[in-house]
Each structure stands twice: as C-alpha cells, then as structure tokens.
Amino acid sequence: MSYIVALSGGIASGKSTIANLFAQLGTPIIDADVIARKVVATGSFALTQIVKHFSLEILLENGELDRSQLREIIFNNDHERLWLNNLLHPIIAQETQKQIAKQTAPYIIWVVPLLIENNLHQLADRVLIIDTPEALQLERLIDRDKISESLAKRMIDSQVSLSDRLAFADDIIVNDGNLVSLKMQIDDLHEKYLHNSKIKNSYE
C-alpha cells in the first residue's frame, strides 16, 4: 500500500499549487475538494439531500449546486455548516478510501483542507502542513473567489488557527509566494517520502 502524506493548510494557503508541483514529480494526488465536488454532482444522493434541506433555490438554472449561495449560507450560520459537514464528510471519506486503496505508487499526496478539524490526521502516515502568512491568505481568497474582505475573514476564522494546525505537523512547507523556494522544499520532501515509503514497505 502507498505511503500516505496528508497535505493540509488554511483556505487559500496554496494547497492546489503545492499538490500540482508534487504531481509534476509523478506523485498521485487525491484531493478531498475534487471528491467533494464529485459527490454533489447533479443526480447524486448528497445533492438531493441538500435540496431537501435548503429548497430548490440552492440550485443554478442548469440544476447544479449554486456553490456561491451555499458558501454565503454556511459561513454565516454555524448550524447550517455543521449540518452540511455531517452530510458530506462520511460520503467524501468513503470515496477517498476507495481511491487510496487503488494506488500503487510509492507515496501519494492526500489533500485534506479540514484534516485537523475532522480528526483525519490519524489516517495518514505523515502530515504536511502549509505555513502561509494570513495577510497573503486573505489577499488570495478575496482575489480568487471575488468576495468581500469580511466574508474572507469569516471563512479563515471558521478553520483552526495556523498554530493549532502546525502542532499536528510532521513536516512544514512555507508558502510565502516564492515559487523557487517552494519547488526546492518540495524536491526535498519528495526524496524524504520516497525513502519513508521504502522503510514502510520493508516492514509490511
């Protein structure tokens, strides 16, 4: 079985950028956000439950989930966010484990935004946490999602703090916007994880 490296960080900390750099080295990527989009596709069980809960107004004209509207709701209402998490996380976890079980590469990167919040770190062999300055996070989030600063701050504040997240880290990758530095860190981690994989497999 592949050595599992769980990659996590705050929203807009650069998880996709870092995952893509690992992918360029031939590492399989299993992304919880990609799976989350898949499980709420048109006709899915999860989308049916979301519509029952929020009404048809949560859909776009083409029948797909209106993510912008849902985001506004859940980041302004803790109860609704908890309801959605309780619905989606077991479904996402089941699909994730199915994808992980198929892997044969020495190691995989498992991208999990809510790794610490949902106590999923125990399912990984190694935890890699992204350290990004909050000011840069805020700037990226506003620019990426075209949202107000107040909503962006609420989204960041809804997650565990960076210090709490770093307490679970086996490895830390600094993403301060310097791509050259980021690539160097990933090259070093790639070699480390290949080595760790050999050690793990020698005991199995």
Walk me through this protein's architecture.
GO terms for molecular function: ATP binding; dephospho-CoA kinase activity. Its EC number is 2.7.1.24. The mean pLDDT is 93. The chain is built from nine helices and five strands, in the order E-H-E-H-H-H-H-E-E-H-H-H-E-H. It has helices spanning 15-24, 32-39, 45-54, 67-74, 78-101, 134-145, 149-157, 162-166, 179-202, and strands spanning 3-8, 29-31, 107-111, 126-131, 171-174. It folds into two domains: 1-28 and 106-204, 3-Layer(aba) Sandwich (Rossmann fold); 39-102, no CATH class. Strands 2-3-1-4-5 form a five-stranded parallel β-sheet, with helices on both faces. It is globular. The chain starts with a strand and ends with a helix. Helix 2 crosses helix 5 and helix 6 (134-145) crosses helix 7 (149-157). 54% of the residues lie in helices and 12% in strands. The chain has 204 residues and is of the alpha/beta class.
Topology readout:
Layout: E1 3-8, H1 15-24, E2 29-31, H2 32-39, H3 45-54, H4 67-74, H5 78-101, E3 107-111, E4 126-131, H6 134-145, H7 149-157, H8 162-166, E5 171-174, H9 179-202
Parallel strand pairs: 1-3, 1-4, 2-3, 4-5
Helix pairs in contact: 2-5, 6-7
Regions with pLDDT < 50 over 5+ consecutive residues?
Answer: none
- The CATH superfamily label of the largest domain reads P-loop containing nucleotide triphosphate hydrolases
Number of helices: 9
Structural class, judged by helices and strands? alpha/beta
CATH topology of the largest domain: Rossmann fold
From the N-terminal CA to the C-terminal CA, the straight-line distance is: 9 Å
Using DSSP, what is the number of strands? 5
β-sheet strand percentage: 5-15%
From the 3D coordinates, which CATH architecture of the largest domain would you assign?
A: 3-Layer(aba) Sandwich
Any idea what the radius of gyration is? 18 Å
Report the order of strands and helices.
EHEHHHHEEHHHEH
Could you give a short account of the major beta sheet? 5 strands, parallel
